[in-house]
Each structure stands twice: as structure tokens, then as C-alpha cells.
Amino acid sequence: MQKLKSAGSLSDQAYNMLKTAIINNEIKPLEYLVEEQIAEQLGISRTPIRTALKKLEFEGLVEMETSKHTRVRTISVGEVQEYQVLRESLEPLAAQLACVSMDSEQLLFLKDLCEQQRQSIEEKDFSHFINLDTQFHCYLAEFTNNNKLKEFVSSLCTQLQRYVILTNTIQASSSEALKEHLQVIEALERRNPEAAAECMTNHLKNVSRRFGTTPKK
Q1: Which residue, 31, 143, 152, 206, is most buried by CB atoms nearer than 10 A?
Q2: 105-112 long-range CB contacts below 8 Å, 24 or more apart?
């Protein structure tokens, strides 16, 4: 890990760096995060590291065994099934609300994310594809102007992104996923909230099917 910049909150910088490393599987499940070592690597004191770890614990990315031992949490198929149940309830609602509230510039932004996903498939850059996929879902929730909905969706997508990277299953399903994103975009462009919700529901059910995590309801 590189040294942190002096500008901005050190705890926020440490949090973002650690979160990215965990999501991208650069820091492995069950790997211990030692405050002293991380502080030395980042060139800061232990206090902002401790704050960052507490935030990661709240998000379910790490677990604190004792006051001195923190390690990256594993993620199971059962947990992903539970996350998908929530996504299938919240994200169609997000699509429905965004269809009413979002403006043309925000719609173009989502279209651009899909175009970048298409390019990522052509370049076989599936790591970038996964990041863009998460952005698509999180920004769509953000465009509802409902902060709580945005927070919930973002948390769920973060956990799913970890699972996708750990299981290395995106290559076989990326084109299908992009096609489903474009169907959501089409419904949004037609300003049809019911169709947008239906397209998102279909997409999320297919996500569960493709990754073998069909939710148990």
C-alpha cells in the first residue's frame, strides 16, 4: 500500500484504500489486518487506522476478534442469497423511483457506464467491468434522491462485488449482464417506472441464477 496524502481525512483515505483492497481480493478473506503494520505502510498513526477498521467492521467487511486482532470476513453462498433477497426488493424500487426523479444528464451518465462495460468486455478487462457494474447499480440508487436507499443498495452491491471477484465467474456472464443493464436503460428512457422495475427484477433474478445463489425466500 502506498503512503497517504496529507490532504483530506486520513481515516477516510485509509478506509477507502483498505476497502478497495478487500473488495478486489488484494487482501484475502481471513487475512489479519495489523494496525501497526498498516500504519507503517501508509505512513500515519494507528488512530485513523482504528477508525477505518471500525467502519469496515460496521459494513461487514472485517471482524474484530479482540481489541488487537482484526481480520477480513469470509462471504458464503448463504450470505449472498440473503443479500440477493434484499436486492430483489430494493433495487426494482430504486429503478422505479429513479425513472421519475432522474434527469437527462444522469441518464446519459448511466448510458456511458454501459458503453464502458461494453469496451471492458472487448478488452477482456473484467476487473474494470465489475467496478462499472457496481457503479451502475449504486448510481441508479443515488439518482432516486433517497439517501437511505442509496446507502442500503451500496452496501449490498459491495458485498456482491466481493463474491463475484472471489468466485471469478464474471467472464461467462458479462455480456448477458450488460444486455440486461441496457434493458433497464431503455425503460428509464421511456420514463416507464413499472417497466424499469420489471427489468431490474429480471436482471437480479438472472444474477442469482448465473452465480448459483438463487435466493431462498
Answers
A1: 143
A2: 106/139, 106/143, 107/185, 107/188, 107/189, 109/139, 110/136, 110/139, 110/140, 110/143, 110/185, 110/188, 111/185
**What is the average per-residue pLDDT within 121-130?**
93
- All three cell numbers of 12, joined, read 477516510
- The identity of residue 96, as a single letter, is Q
Residue type, position 28, single letter: K
Confidence of residue 65 (pLDDT cuts 50, 70, 90): confident
Residue type present at position 18: L
Average pLDDT of the residues in 207-212 = 83
Buried b or exposed e, range 177-208, using 16+ CB within 10 angstroms: bbebbbbbbebbeeeebebbbbbbbebbeebb
Closest CA to 128 of 49, 24, 213: 24
Indicate the pTM of the whole model: 0.83
Q: Residues with Cβ < 8 Å from 113, sequence gap 6 or more?
A: 132, 135, 136, 139
Using a CB cutoff of 8 Å and minimum separation of 24, what contacts does 180-188 make?
180/206, 181/114, 181/117, 181/133, 181/136, 182/114, 184/95, 184/140, 185/107, 185/110, 185/111, 185/114, 187/95, 187/99, 188/95, 188/98, 188/99, 188/102, 188/107, 188/110
User: Which DSSP state fits 145?
Assistant: T
